[in-house]
Design a protein that fits this description.
With 76 residues, chain A is an alpha+beta fold. Helices cover 29% and strands 29% of the residues of chain A. Chain A is globular and about 35 Å long. The N and C termini of chain A lie far apart (32 Å). The chains are: A alpha+beta (76), B alpha+beta (110).
């Protein structure tokens, strides 16, 4: 089952409250997204840790219901 | 993940300077993200080994717990987890990946 962009955003913001999240539906099919997540909380974290924080926010959906999410992260 | 799977993955990761866990083979990637990861390494002209997780369910599941990373591909350099295809692309574009590989003494592909 695909996920709606708003659901992805809501999960991220619920766990990383200050996050600015831009989501693009790459194929227009509700299944292939790119997301850019910017947060102060990423400060001092490696890229891997930043991405892990976003994956944690998505609560195990990444790689499951959410197959294709290209992710970039940055410190606010 | 079973201890046996964990041990096998650790052995794979330690046994290769540059190792890509991917879907399919470098010649026939079975997923766009894996294809992108292969293209980056080939473009950098670095010698690397690959593990096709589609051929091994134990490794396919085990690698996700091993690195606490939910997706394939995954790149390891000298036993350290570097990232998935998005991080590889970001590091490639910024020049960091090339720098990391040369610092770690990765061998240029013949």
């Amino acid at each position: 089952m695909p996920m709606a962009a708003d659901d992805i955003r809501a999960l991220i913001v619920a766990n990383i409250p200050d996050a600015r999240v831009e989501i693009t539906d790459l194929a227009g099919d509700g299944d292939h997204y790119s997301a850019r997540v910017v947060s102060k909380s990423f400060s001092g974290l490696s890229r891997v840790k930043q991405h892990q924080a976003v994956y944690a926010a998505l609560g195990g959906r990444m790689g499951g219901v959410l197959h294709a999410l290209q992710l970039t992260t940055a410190v606010e | 993940m079973t201890d046996a799977a964990q041990a096998r993955i650790a052995e794979l990761v330690q046994g290769s300077d540059v190792l890509l866990f991917m879907k399919g083979s470098p010649l026939f990637p079975q997923c766009g993200f894996s294809s992108r990861a292969v293209a980056i390494l080939q473009h950098l002209g670095v010698e690397f080994d690959s593990v096709d997780v589609l051929q091994d369910q134990e490794v396919r599941q085990g690698i996700k717990a091993f690195s606490d990373w939910p997706t394939i591909p995954q790149l390891y350099v000298k036993g350290e987890f570097v990232g998935g295809s998005d991080i590889m692309m970001e590091m490639y574009e910024s020049g960091e990946l090339s720098q990391l590989l040369s610092e770690q003494g990765a061998t240029p592909a013949a």
